[in-house]
Amino acid sequence: MANIGIGGALLIFVIALIVFGPKKLPELGRALGSTLKEFKQSTKGIMDDDHDKEKK
Questions:
Q1: How far apart are CA 42 and CA 16, in angstroms?
Q2: Which residues, including other chains, have CB under 8 Å from residue 4's CB and lie 6 or more apart?
Q3: For residues 12 and 4, is the Cβ–Cβ distance under 8 A?
């Protein structure tokens, strides 16, 4: 994954603020966080299942 740096992150934040507005931005952040959390849990479950199959 490429490093975008502070300048790039700030630019992305400003564009997101302009596009979505200050009221929607926290809601989108929470939705993104919960989505990433679910994805991490599901991939961990898949990896655990694969690891259990290798032991048998």
A1: 28
A2: 12
A3: yes
CB 20 within 8 A of CB 28: yes
Contacts of 17 (CB under 8 A, 6+ apart): 25
Q: How far apart are CA 18 and CA 25, in angstroms?
A: 10
Token pair recorded at residue 26: 């926290």
DSSP 17-47: HHHH-TTTHHHHHHHHHHHHHHHHHHHHHHH
Walk along the chain (56 residues) and give the pLDDT tens digit of each residue: 567 889 998 998 899 889 988 888 889 889 989 999 999 988 887 777 666 666 65
pTM of the model: 0.53
